[in-house]
Amino acid sequence: MRWNLHAPRGSPREAGGTLRRGASSSYPRLPAYSPKRAEFLPLAGVSLDGANRGRVQSWRIRPARRVRGVWRPPGDKSITHRAVILGLLAHGATEIEGFLESDDCLRTLRMAQQLGASAERVGAAHWRIVGRGGQPLQEPADTLDAGNSGTTARLMAGVLAAQPFFSVLTGDESLRRRPMRRVVEPLQRMGARIDGRDGATRLPLAIRGGELRGIHYLTPVASAQVKSCLLLAGLHAAGVTEVAEPCLSRDHTERMLHAFGATLQQQVSDAGAHRVRITGGQRLEGQRLTIPGDFSSAAFWIAAALLLSGSDLTIEHAGVNPTRTGLLEALAQGGVHLEWQAVSEQAGEPTATLRVRPQPIGAMRIDGALVPSLIDEAPILALLATQAHGETELRDAAELRVKESDRIEAITTELRKMGAQIDPLPDGFRVQGPTPLHGAEVHSHGDHRIAMTLAIAGLMAHAGETVVHDVACVQTSFPEFESLLQALVEE
Fold it and tell me: Which domains does the chain have, with CATH numbers?
């Protein structure tokens, strides 16, 4: 084993491969952007009051013949969140192109403004943020509302824990049910004072920050949100903060910290366990960033193109960070291999053009270290498995039960209505395929990924119309999804 003094890039683990021990490489640094400091307008033209989410409550989906076209996915949600947060903490201005203007990311942007950042929309999906330049953040005058965004709540908890003021962090009804102990407990060990519902395990949280000290923390399960929260807290803590996880979770925070000028040390063991260290007091510099296309959004259309005969879909500038593309590794188990072209890199994040055409799918067995890299794709994986030849099983994914919905129960319940042979397991599901699906009346359970999976299921149903209820939740991650049901689909 050895320590790497920078974040791992896309090359250590190729699609279908494994992360090599001690693999390392250097990142190209993007030039710092240093315009005159200015007072920018508030989030002009952007609504966070939910009014834009109430217009469409249901979709009616008819079976389709194929999907065809050339498409660039919207900016990656996880990376957009992190770009805003580091822009808030950095010296100078940060320009973000490809900004995902979804409800979740706009919540993070609004919170950054409440904490003293200036933000200006300078073009479509293009934002400029002027951060606090290493100074303490501004004490918020009101509650900080993360809406439905668990990423916003958990990452910002790490930022707030190091600030010399009192703040209250909350979210919507769904987010207030989700667990927060996983970040509260280690932050308290670092010295933060945090109170909240159910023994500070649920939002709202009252955070009285202050001087933190670095700790060594072993996460019970691989979690990018826990790791990112502690790295952001560690950035402002005395000494070294080390986070160890049983396997490598998505590493966008490490990559982006490096792009903003921070030094990290990382280690991967022979068994795949991962450790990352950060020393407090480091200076971040604003950057010009282009956000890669969101692989999790692309996954829905990858599935559609694989399952609908005659499809031919080219997906440009898709993020292919190997900690996110576990779905491609799972499909490779089933004999599916996509065409990759034009591989490049943006701010340490690998991107590629993918071409997807129909292919037969074999049975898949997904567990262990592969699970964190496809946790968001589990619902669409379940749909793919209904058309795979043989039995597909997902295990070690109990985390799915505490997402925006209990995704194990939600996807098994709704796909069964369409004729799928799928059974829930305590930590995953088991699917027998291939099974013809038919149209049905189904429900999103208020979960954006369930809603979009059911829409794709409706496209590839053999007969009948599918009605998907409660689809406004899709605005949290993929506002343009509905328009693509017309733009890419041929009936």
Answer: 52-73+292-490 (3.65.10.10), 77-290 (3.65.10.10)
Q: Which amino acid is at 151?
A: T
Q: What is the reported pLDDT for 48?
A: 36
Residue in 76, 294, 376, 447 annotated catalytic = 376
Q: Are 70 and 487 in contact (CB under 8 A)?
A: no
> pLDDT tens for residues 268-310?
888 889 999 999 999 999 999 999 999 999 999 999 999 999 9
163-195 in b/e form (b: 16+ CB < 10 A) is: beeebbbbbbebbbebebebbbebbeebbbebe
pLDDT digits (tens, 9 = 90+) for 56-89: 699 999 999 999 999 999 999 999 999 999 999 9
Q: CA-CA distance, 21 to 268, in Å (whole number)?
A: 6
Tell me the whole-structure pTM to 2 decimals: 0.89
269 burial level (CB within 10 Å; 0-12, 13-18, 19+): middle
Q: Is the peptide bond before 434 cis (omega within 30 degrees of 0)?
A: yes
- The whole-angstrom separation of Cα 402 and Cα 46 is 29
- The residue among 56, 106, 51, 52 whose CA lies nearest residue 77 is 106
Contacts of 29 (CB under 8 A, 6+ apart): 259, 261
Going by C-alpha positions, the residue among 409, 415, 259, 281 that lies closest to residue 348 is 259
Q: Tell me the residue length of the chain.
A: 491
Which pLDDT belongs to residue 55? 52
Instruction: Confirm whether 376 is a catalytic residue.
Output: yes
